[in-house]
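Subject: design request, 352 residues
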């Protein structure tokens, strides 16, 4: 019993010594050698370190602690050698690989760009900022009052049907219904309400934003799109001011020689109202081009001013609203609005 336990202990100590020698001696110069080394020593099932651990009971109780520590330090050695060998191999690989061929074409880094709608919106906004307009924004989820009533759409008047509305809570509700705004014009009301809390006109804002209409989707209409609204209220603002600024705007966007026309129209919140067309040159068309509508505009209806507490005897104003997609499509020669919403990178890349 005594002697057999001695023999067991001696064998275990010998196995530890062999292990140390083998660990130090192994040559680790290939990926395979490194892998094999890792498995041989560290494998939890068949590794030699695990095997040695199992022999701890063979060692005399007073020597077990030192024996265990020696195994641990052998294990540390294995791990250190693995790390060093891997690092050495990686450096060797990069050092011996062919030197960089500087004549090779560079690897292109894909770079994003602003969406054409964003670009057009910023361009339009910037033009009016240069004329002293401030940028304002309003909520896309709007109440019936701001979207329609305050803009002089009479209740149950068919004018409300001009814009197919997505209702969130229907109009029978006490507050008159909640909806997705169908245009940016409700922001006119919000801006005027805001200023009138503790001020007076002049008011001069430009309002870019997203709007929603429940329309059949086609190449020219989508269920959401973007508009830019403009509003200027001051003493003595006239239709001539409106025409002047819109003409200046069209020249900036479409060139000095742009042809534009004002066509009488109707909006409940402006009187008189007009739509503005620009002449779109196209050789393929019979007349060499055609008129394209780009915006609606007019003099702010006195009812609208009075509704937010602005004295319509003292102040007048103009307002306009344009579809950004329409402008972007004209500027960039896009013939189907839906492509603006597909996020096809091949299309978007062209605008970087
Ligand atoms: N809000 C109108 C529309 O969406 C455009 C408009 C804005 C007309 C301002 C007149 C004045 O069609």
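Subject: RE: design request

Done. Sequence follows.
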């Amino acid at each position: 019993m005594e002697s057999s336990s001695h023999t067991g202990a001696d064998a275990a100590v010998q196995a530890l010594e062999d292990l140390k020698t083998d660990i130090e001696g192994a040559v680790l110069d290939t990926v395979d050698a490194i892998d094999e080394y890792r498995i041989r020593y560290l494998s939890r099932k068949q590794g030699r370190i695990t095997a040695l651990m199992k022999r701890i009971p063979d060692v005399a109780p007073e020597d077990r602690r030192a024996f265990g520590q020696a195994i641990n330090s052998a294990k540390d050695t294995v791990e250190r050698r693995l790390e060093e060998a891997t690092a050495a191999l990686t450096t060797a690989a990069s050092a011996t690989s062919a030197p960089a061929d500087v004549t090779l074409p560079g690897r292109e880094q894909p770079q994003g760009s602003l969406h054409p709608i964003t670009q057009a919106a910023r361009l339009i906004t910037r033009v009016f900022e240069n004329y002293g307009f401030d940028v304002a924004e309003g909520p896309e989820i709007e109440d019936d009052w701001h979207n329609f009533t305050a803009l002089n759409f009479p209740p149950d008047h068919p004018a409300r049907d001009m814009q197919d509305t997505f209702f969130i809570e229907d109009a029978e509700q006490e507050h008159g219904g909640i909806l997705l705004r169908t245009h940016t014009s409700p922001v006119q009301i919000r801006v005027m309400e805001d200023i009138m809390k503790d001020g007076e006109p002049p008011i001069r804002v430009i309002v870019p934003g997203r709007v929603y209409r429940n329309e059949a989707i086609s190449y020219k209409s989508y269920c959401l799109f973007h508009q830019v609204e403009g509003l200027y209220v001051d003493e003595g603002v006239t239709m001539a001011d409106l025409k002047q600024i819109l003409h200046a705007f069209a020249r900036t966007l479409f060139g000095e020689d742009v042809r534009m026309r004002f066509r009488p129209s109707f909006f409940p919140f402006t009187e008189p109202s007009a739509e503005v067309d620009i002449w779109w040159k196209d050789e393929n068309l019979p007349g060499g081009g055609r008129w394209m509508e780009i915006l609606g505009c007019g003099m702010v209806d006195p009812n609208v001013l009075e509704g937010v507490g602005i004295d319509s005897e003292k102040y007048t104003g103009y307002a306009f609203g344009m579809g950004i997609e329409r402008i972007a499509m004209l500027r960039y020669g896009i013939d189907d609005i839906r492509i603006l919403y597909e996020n096809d990178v091949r299309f978007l890349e062209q605008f970087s």
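The domain at 116-351 is CATH 3.30.930.10 (BirA Bifunctional Protein; domain 2).
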